[in-house]
Specification:
heterodimer; A: about 350 residues; mainly alpha; ABC transporter involved in vitamin B12 uptake, BtuC; two-stranded antiparallel ribbon; two-stranded antiparallel sheet; B: mainly alpha; 15 helices; about 70% helix; globular
Chain lengths: ~350, ~325
C-alpha cells in the first residue's frame, strides 16, 4: 500500500537515478539516520557500545570493503585481517608522530596507506585467479602480521609489543583513549560508516562499479568489450583496502584502544569478515551491514542464552558458536547463495504487491 | 668441511622431512580436487578431527561428555578402558567414512554445478563446523598422541655422520617414519587410481562428470569414496603431526601450509604435491636458517606463501598443473 513507486513522480534525471527510488525507503533511511544520530547517543551505555554497536559499525566498513573486492569484483581475499592491521599500525604511527593533527585525518590517511599496500598485494591478481588468488592473499595475511610483530619500529619499540591509542578529541569530544564516552565513540564510528557507505554505494553503481562487475562475471569477456583489467582489478584492490584500512584504524584507535597484532588481526579475522559478506550477500551494500550485524550478534546471543540462561561453561558456548557459524555458512550457501540481502529483495517484491497480490 | 655447510646440510635434511609432512596434507587436497573439483579447505581440520577422534578412542573418552554434563548435570568423562592403537585407528576410519558420507549427503550434493569459489567457501564453513565439533566432542585441551611410533634422535644417522664429518646430524626418528609412510601412501594411492575399478571410476569422474554418469558411474558413491580416501589421508597426516607436536588446534594451522605446497605443485598433480612439499619444506628451513636471524626469525609463518605467490606470478598453473585454458 505504502511501498510502491506509483504516484512518486520523478521530474529530473537526478531524481530518477537516486539511491532509494521508493518514497518509503527514502523516509525509512532518513528516519534511521535520525534515530542513529539523535536518539541512540543519549540512550547508549558502555555494554551496548562495546559488545554490539561499535563492533557492528566497524565491521560494517570492513565488510563493505571486502564486498567491493569479492562481491563486486570477484577477487576472493583472505588477507582482510592483515590489511586491517596495516590500517591500525599506520594510524598508530601517525598518531604518535603528529599528535596535533586530528584523528579523523589520521584514520583517513591510514586508509590511504592501506590502499597502497593493497595495490601491491593486488598486483598478482592480474596473473592469478580464483582460489589460487585466495591462497595468494594468505601471503599478505601472514607476512603483514609477522612484520608488525617483529619490526619494533611499527610499535615504537614498546616493551609489551602492543600498540595503544592516546586520548584524542574531535570537536571537543574525546573519542579515543580509556576515558572517552561511549556516545562519542559511537558517533565518530557512525559518521565514518555513513560516509563510507555513501561512497561505496555510489562507486559501485558508477562506471567503476560496472567495470568491477564485468570483471567478476567474466574477465576475458570484459577485456574484449574494452574494460581494462589492470585498472579495474587494481582499483578494486585499492578501494577495498582503503575501506578495510579505515575499519582497522577505527578498530584499534576507537574500539579496542590497545592491540596485539597476532591476536586481533589474525587469520580468524579474515574469515570472520568473509563470513559476513557471504551471509549478508555478495555484491550488496545492504548485505554488508546485514552480515556484520548477524556475525556480531550471533555470539552475543548465544552467550546470553547458553551461558546466561542455561549456565553452561563459556568454552562450551564458544565451541557451539564456531560450529553454528560453520553450519550457517554451509546452510546459507546451499539455501540462499545471495545471502540475507536476497531475503530483503524478495520481501520488497512482496511488499510492492501487498495487500493485493494479483 | 666448514661448520656452516654442515649445519646447512642438516637443515636441508630436516626440511625435506618437514616437506614430506606438508606433502601428506597436500595429497588429501589434490585427491578431492581432482575427483570433484572441490578445493577442500577443511583438509587440515579433518586431520585435526581425525587425530582428536583417535586419541579420544584410545583414551576411552566419552564423546560430547562436556555437553552431556552441562545438559543433564552429570559428571562423566571416561569409559574407563583403553583401546589398542590399531583398533582405535580402524574405529577412527569408520568415523571418517561416516563423516565423508555426511559431508556429501548434507552439503556437497546440494552444491553441484555451483561455481568453484562457492564450493571453496562452503568448505571453509565445513572447516569451522568440524573444528567446533571436534572440540565439542573431545574437549579442546592439548592431547598427547602415542600410537607406538619411534621418536627421538636417530642414533645411527647421528653416529655415521659424526664419523664422517665430525658432526652428528639430528634427525628425528618420527620424521623418517613419516617419510616411509608418505612414500607408501603415495604408491598405494597411485596403484588404487590406476589398477582398481573404483580408481578408474574416480578418474573418469575427475575427467568429466556427465560422461562418467552416462556410462553408469554413480557420482554419489564416487564422491563419498573420495571424501573417505581424503579422510584416510587426513588420519595418516593427523597421526604423524599429532605424534610430533601434540593434538591441538595449531594442527589445523600447520595444514594451511599445505596450500602453498599445492599452488607450487599444481592443484591437479599428485607428484606435484610431493615435489611442492619438498621445495617448501627445504626452502622455508633454509630461509629461516640463512636469512631468519637477520630479520627477526619466525619467517616460517609466511615464507611458503610468499614463495608460492612469487612463483605463481610467473607460472600460474604451478609446476605440474594442467595448463589453464580460458575461453569466452
Amino acid at each position: 500500500m505504502l511501498y510502491r513507486e506509483a504516484g512518486d513522480f520523478k521530474t529530473s534525471y537526478a531524481k530518477d537515478n537516486q539511491t532509494f527510488p521508493i518514497r518509503f525507503d527514502r523516509w525509512g533511511y532518513f528516519a534511521l539516520l535520525a534515530v542513529a544520530f539523535l536518539v541512540v547517543p543519549f540512550v547508549i551505555n558502555d555494554y551496548w557500545a562495546s559488545a554490539v554497536l561499535l563492533p557492528f559499525l566497524i565491521y560494517s566498513i570492513a565488510a563493505l570493503g571486502l564486498n567491493i573486492l569479492t562481491g563486486y569484483c570477484g577477487q576472493v581475499s583472505l588477507g582482510t585481517g592483515g590489511f586491517m592491521a596495516v590500517g591500525a599500525y599506520s594510524c598508530y604511527k601517525l598518531m604518535t608522530a603528529f599528535p596535533e593533527v586530528s584523528i579523523v585525518i589520521h584514520v583517513l590517511l591510514a586508509g590511504g596507506i592501506t590502499a597502497g599496500v593493497g595495490l601491491l598485494f593486488g598486483l598478482p591478481s592480474l596473473r592469478i585467479k580464483g582460489f589460487y588468488l585466495a591462497v595468494a592473499t594468505l601471503a599478505a595475511q601472514f607476512f603483514l602480521v609477522w612484520l608488525f610483530n617483529k619490526v619494533g619500529w611499527f610499535y615504537n619499540y614498546s616493551a609489551s609489543g602492543q600498540i595503544s591509542s592516546a586520548p584524542r578529541s574531535v570537536l571537543g569530544f574525546e573519542v579515543t583513549g580509556p576515558t572517552a564516552s561511549a556516545a562519542a565513540k559511537y558517533l565518530i564510528c557512525l559518521s565514518f560508516v555513513v560516509v563510507m557507505a555513501w561512497l561505496a554505494r555510489n562507486l559501485t553503481r558508477g562506471s567503476y562499479g560496472r567495470k568491477w562487475m564485468a570483471i567478476r562475471d567474466m574477465d576475458i569477456a570484459a577485456e574484449i568489450i574494452g574494460v581494462n583489467p589492470l585498472a579495474a582489478k587494481l582499483s578494486a584492490f585499492a578501494v577495498s583496502s582503503f575501506f578495510v584500512g579505515v575499519s582497522g584504524a577505527l578498530f584499534f584507535s576507537v574500539y579496542l584502544g590497545a592491540v596485539e597484532v597476532g591476536e586481533v588481526f589474525g587469520i580468524q579475522k579474515s574469515f570472520l569478515v568473509l563470513f559476513m559478506i557471504i551471509i549478508g550477500g555478495l555484491g550488496s551494500i545492504l548485505g554488508s551491514f546485514a552480515g556484520a550485524a548477524f556475525i556480531v550478534l550471533l555470539p552475543v546471543f548465544l552467550k546470553n542464552v547458553l551461558v546466561g540462561s542455561f549456565g553452561w561453561a563459556t568454552d562450551l558456548a564458544a565451541h557451539l558458536e564456531i560450529m553454528t557459524l560453520g553450519g550457517l555458512i554451509m546452510m546459507f550457501l546451499i539455501l540462499e547463495p545471495h545471502g540475507l540481502a536476497q531475503y530483503w529483495r524478495t520481501t520488497k517484491e512482496k511488499l510492492r504487491l501487498w495487500p493485493f497480490p494479483h | 668441511m666448514p661448520e656452516q655447510l654442515l649445519f646447512a646440510m642438516e637443515v636441508t635434511l630436516n626440511g625435506l622431512m618437514a616437506g614430506v609432512l606438508y606433502a601428506l596434507v597436500a595429497l588429501g587436497f589434490v585427491l578431492i580436487f581432482k575427483a570433484s573439483g572441490v578445493f577442500n579447505f577443511a583438509q587440515g581440520v579433518m586431520a585435526l578431527f581425525a587425530a582428536l577422534t583417535l586419541v579420544g578412542f584410545m583414551e576411552g573418552q566419552i564423546p560430547f561428555a562436556h555437553l552431556i554434563n552441562a545438559i543433564f548435570g552429570t559428571d562423566i568423562h571416561h569409559f574407563g578402558w583403553h583401546v589398542n592403537a590399531l583398533v582405535a585407528i580402524l574405529m577412527t576410519m569408520v568415523v571418517m567414512v561416516a563423516l565423508a558420507w555426511c559431508v556429501n549427503h548434507f552439503v556437497m550434493r546440494h552444491l553441484v554445478n555451483q561455481e568453484p569459489i562457492i564450493l571453496f567457501m562452503a568448505t571453509i564453513g565445513l572447516a569451522y563446523f568440524l573444528e567446533g565439533l571436534g572440540d565439542l566432542m573431545w574437549g579442546s585441551d592439548i592431547k598427547n598422541l602415542n600410537v607406538g611410533l619411534p621418536q627421538g634422535i636417530n642414533g645411527w644417522i647421528d653416529e655415521t655422520t659424526f664419523n664422517l664429518f665430525g658432526y652428528g646430524f639430528f634427525i628425528d626418528n618420527l620424521d623418517i617414519v613419516a617419510t616411509i609412510v608418505a612414500v607408501a601412501l603415495v604408491i598405494v594411492l597411485i596403484a588404487f587410481a590406476q589398477y582398481t575399478k573404483q580408481g578408474r571410476a574416480m578418474r573418469a569422474v575427475a575427467d568429466d562428470h556427465q560422461a562418467a554418469l552416462s556410462v553408469g558411474i554413480s557420482l554419489n558413491f564416487i564422491w563419498v569414496m573420495v571424501w573417505s580416501v581424503a579422510g584416510f589421508v587426513a588420519l595418516v597426516a593427523g597421526i604423524m603431526w599429532g605424534s610430533k607436536s601434540g593434538v591441538q588446534f595449531s594442527l589445523s594451522l600447520i595444514a594451511l601450509k599445505a596450500l602453498p605446497v599445492l599452488m607450487l605443485g599444481g592443484f591437479t598433480s599428485i607428484p606435484g604435491a610431493i615435489v611442492g612439499g619438498l621445495i617448501i619444506g627445504v626452502g622455508e628451513k633454509l630461509f629461516e636458517f640463512a636469512v631468519g636471524p637477520l630479520i627477526g626469525g619466525a619467517t616460517e609463518n609466511w615464507f611458503a606463501f610468499v614463495l608460492a605467490l612469487v612463483f605463481l606470478v610467473f607460472r600460474p598453473q604451478g609446476l605440474f598443473g594442467e595448463k589453464i585454458i580460458e575461453r569466452v
